[in-house]
Amino acid sequence: MTGNSEKIKVLAIVNASFGYDGISNVATNYYLYQDKNAVEMDLLTINPINEALESEIKKNNNKVFVLPFRNSNPLKYVIALKKIIKENKYDIVYVHGNSATMAVELISAKLAGCKVRVAHSHNTQCNHMKINKLLMPFFSLLYTDCCACSPEAGKFLFGNRECYVVNNGIYVPKYEFSEEIRDKIRTQLGVENKFVIGHIGRFAYQKNQEFLINILKVVIEKGEDAVLLLVGEGETIEMVKSTAESLGVADRVIFFGTTDFVNEVVQAMDCFVFPSRFEGLGIVAIEAQASGLSCVASTEVPEKVKINDKTTFLSLESDVTVWASAVIERKTTASTRAALVSETKKNLEKAKFDIEKNCADMLDYYKKICEERK
Questions:
Q1: Are the C-beta atoms of 174 and 265 separated by less than 8 Å?
Q2: 178-184 long-range Cβ contacts below 8 angstroms, 24+ apart
Q3: The whole model's pTM is what?
Q4: SS3 assignment, position 114
Q5: Is the Cβ–Cβ distance between 49 and 130 less than 8 Å?
């Protein structure tokens, strides 16, 4: 290894806005739960990260870099990133993204002389398919190794090239069901006796939150005293609010915003609904199930996320009444969730979604690819 011979030096880069989305969560978890005696990891983003994570990184004598001009001035970004990589002599530059635009980071790494350049695919589609197609030949020449959150996400960016599937693990004890926390959050929200339909995700076309409003309306028409709890922010939030107004259910929708305590908010829900139009994996569905919650997800979400038998997959072409009936059928109570927790915990370990074990596997992967590129 370069630098400290006892540690592998890694620069993890998130090339999209860092916040409360799946990519950010994965990058965060693979930092927090890694073996810090074996891996020295710095983080680079295009916008400031939350204070708690930044404090943790600096406490461990690691570095946080913010280069906010990636999209406005790519050349300046490439030059600045090359300088950072060269000065810090990283063994691995590891780029998290969902398209061939990761070529921007990878060219910086190549120019800086980094021998191990990893591209990690987090989705099965992206928002700029034309640019993705244009950059693909260039991108394919720049990464030395490839990872993906699922085989489907790997196929999207890397074709038939073999890639290492990295499970989007979670710290399982953090999500264990707590009736005390459930009661606290439900009281704060004023939904003590309501049927709480929940969703967590960035407000975007991909996540399809407007369909949740339609589901809520039908659930109410079927006689349920229901509310919809939406956790997240994003570009389509105003459209979703308008849909709620037009369907006459605005007073039944809670726009919670973002939070560092998803593990607590998910306790307040009675059913988690995930109608994504496309999805690389869907770590929030795994987090929901870890708390003993049932899920109703679209068939565009990989079946790999199914951890317990209380998860149902439906086509987005199915009528909204079918979705509403499934949501009602999957309604959980505090007692049924408590009973699910031990089974779910075992299943999470079997499915390899335990982040501590995932990080140990990732360390082995780091060692392997560094050895191969010597």
A1: no
A2: 178/267, 179/334, 179/338, 181/264, 181/267, 182/267, 182/268, 182/334, 184/264
A3: 0.80
A4: coil
A5: no
pLDDT tens-digit profile of 176-201? 899 999 999 999 999 999 999 999 99
CATH numbers and ranges of domains, the chain: 8-169+354-372 (3.40.50.2000), 172-350 (3.40.50.2000)
Strand order in the sheet with 145-148: 64-66, 39-45, 8-14, 92-97, 116-121, 145-148, 164-165
Residue type, 4: N
Structure tokens at 123: 């989705």
Angle at 135 between CA 134 and CA 139, to 5 degrees: 150
Query: CA 14, CA 42: separation in Å to the nearest integer?
Result: 11
- Give the three-state DSSP class for 288: helix
Residue 301: partners with Cβ closer than 8 Å, 6 or more residues away: 274, 276, 279, 281, 282, 285, 313
In which residue are the tokens 């990133």 written? 81
Give the tokens for residue 96.
């998290």
Tens-place pLDDT, residues 262-272: 999 999 999 99
91 and 41 Cβ atoms separated by less than 8 Å? no
